[in-house]
Amino acid sequence: MQNWLIKQSQINPDKIALITTAEQWTFAQLTEKVLQTAGQLTTLLGELPRQTRIAVLVKNDSTGYLVILALQQLGLVPLLLNWRLSRIELQRQLKIGQPRALIVDDNLATQLKVDVKVKLISLKQMTTSKAQTIVPVPEFLPDQLASIMFTSGTTGQPHGVKQTFQNHFYSAVGSAFNLGLDTNELWLCALPIFHISGLSIMMRSLIYGMGILLVQHFSAVEVTQQLQDYPVTLMSVVPQMLQRLLKVYPAKGYQQHFRGFLLGGGPIDAATLKTCQQKNLPVVQSYGMTETCSQVVALNFTEAERHLGSVGKPLFPIQVRLAAKPIGEIQLKGPNLAAGYLDDSHGFSQKMTADGWFKTGDIGRFDQTGFLYICGRKDEMLISGGENIFPQEIEAVYQQFSSIQEIAVIGVNDEKWGQVPWAFYSTQKPINYQLLLSFGRQHLAHYKVPQQFIWVDHLPRTASHKISRSKLRELAKKMKS
After folding, report:
1. In which residue ranges of the chain is pLDDT below 70?
2. Strand 211-214 relative to strand 186-189: parallel, antiparallel, unpaired?
3. Do 415 and 298 fall within a single domain?
4. Are 349 and 383 in contact (CB under 8 A)?
5. Distance of alpha carbon 45 from its chain centroid, rounded?
6. Which residue in 19, 85, 113, 176 has the fewest CB atoms around it within 10 Å?
7. Residue 221 pLDDT
8. Is 70 helix (H, G, I), strand (E, B) or coil?
9. Distance between CA atoms of residues 88 and 363, nearest Å
10. Residue 155 gets which letter from DSSP?
11. In the β-sheet with 418-426, what is the strand arrangement from edge to edge?
């Protein structure tokens, strides 16, 4: 595949590629700036072998964006780190990644204290360095690594996922076939670019010739204003972000070019979907993971209303099957499946079936028309008195309780039943236990009703806004001890 950025600078030189609140660049201007950044990095790093790993710890701003693209132009692999992690977590990921250097945002550099010996390059040091003239790589070879990023670690330790150019390409193809492609597409990116939800938008930009409006911090009020001021066509969100945007939705709506939200990271609840329908806001539910370079299953705009709760049908390049019917583990096969785990090749191979399918760890079912429904994670499923219980089913019921803002259910070990469900929820003030118990017994089998309801200010989340069940399990363990 010809170098995507260079190709776009040739065929769409004057098309808008990147917008921030302060600046904007066409593809020709962006390419010039990326090559300059690549030249500055070469001055600091020297000539390095292709596929050398360089760690990147940056925020959602134009400089961080340029760094990621510049490393790809040099044939190097950006190892993307989450700046919200603790020092110990970052140290673990650097030890696993073994990068040649770490490029770090200046504001983050003062907080960074890791024992791993690695060359540090601040963004200020980079931007003030003299740029060498570099020759960008002519091709992005399909099996070469384009990026490495760590899974969100919602249920345990994160894995470093090796993503190839082929993975990103076919992810973009599947998305385009499902959502269609506006000739003047402008995708608002408020999700972190160190996460697949954000990075996949960057890669789509280079493949589609699409513009991106890059937002440094998600603020419902500020993003709402941008959705009115800029000709944004699409925005990727997680459920929490969508709910916050709906609370400040303007009476006049967004501007006329807006086509809808792409929702990932969790299912949409009935109340939120109803509000979107009332406001004539299209929402496309999707399912994917870091190992598949974003979405592999999705609803399209016309199907979303008729199939509430479904994540849709498999996108064009991907195959999906269940290990057992009618409910079983979801298995995937396709060209956007990652090359493996950086830190655990055996662990990745263990997730592959004998005939080459990837075991996702998610449990699902198909309806009669081929739409996929996610029941929950295999490792989140609890067995209570011999009965299988999926936390998402309980959560979906309690999300209908009017005052509950968010809720998460985990399994806790129990001497009598093996495991029992506990619920953690957030509201403005605690809810009477008997009210919650009675509500559950009206809508659920008795063994599915949580035995404990723990009120918290907010649920712990990962950088990708997913609920961290591993932290909830730690909290439950402390409460039992």
Report:
1. 110-111, 113-116, 153-156, 463-465
2. parallel
3. no
4. no
5. 30
6. 113
7. 97
8. helix
9. 32
10. S
11. 406-414, 418-426, 452-455
The encoded tokens of residue 405 equal 């803002």
Q: Which helix (H) or strand (E) holds 164?
A: strand 160-164
Is omega for the bond preceding 326 within 30 degrees of 0, making it cis? yes
Summarised one tens digit per residue, pLDDT across range 231-254 is 999 999 988 899 899 999 999 999
- Whole-prediction pTM: 0.87
Q: Using CB atoms within 10 A of its CB, is residue 346 exposed (0-12), middle (13-18) or buried (19+)?
A: exposed
For residue 378, the model assigns a pLDDT of: 85
Q: What is the dihedral of CA 313, 314, 315, 320, to 10 degrees?
A: 180
Helix (H, G, I), strand (E, B) or coil at 94: helix
**Tell me, what's the pLDDT at 3?**
98
Beta strands in 219-357 (DSSP E): 234-237, 260-263, 283-289, 294-298, 310-314, 319-322, 327-333, 340-341
> What type of residue is 357?
W
182 CB neighbour count, 10 Å cutoff: 15
Annotate 383-448 with three-state secondary structure.
EECCEEECHHHHHHHHCCCCCCCEEEEEEEEECCCEEEEEEEEECCCCCCHHHHHHHHHHHCCHHH
Say how many C-beta atoms besides its own lie within 10 A of residue 352's C-beta: 15
Q: What values do phi and psi take at 288, rounded to 5?
A: -170, -175
* Residues in CB range of 112: below 8 A, 6 or more apart: 57, 87, 90, 104, 120
Of 454, 377, 469, which Cα lies nearest the Cα of 422? Answer: 454
Identify the pLDDT of residue 244. Answer: 93
109 and 14 within one domain = yes
Angle, helix 62-73 to helix 196-208, in steps of 10 degrees: 60
Do 349 and 386 have their domain in common?
A: no
> Where do the DSSP E strands lie in 34-151?
53-57, 77-80, 101-104, 119-122, 145-150
pLDDT, position 110? 67
Write out the two tokens for 16.
């808008």
**Shared-domain flag, residues 27 and 45:** yes
Domain boundary among 352, 377, 402: 377
The count of structural domains within the chain is: 3
- The answer on 230 and 121 residing in a single domain is no
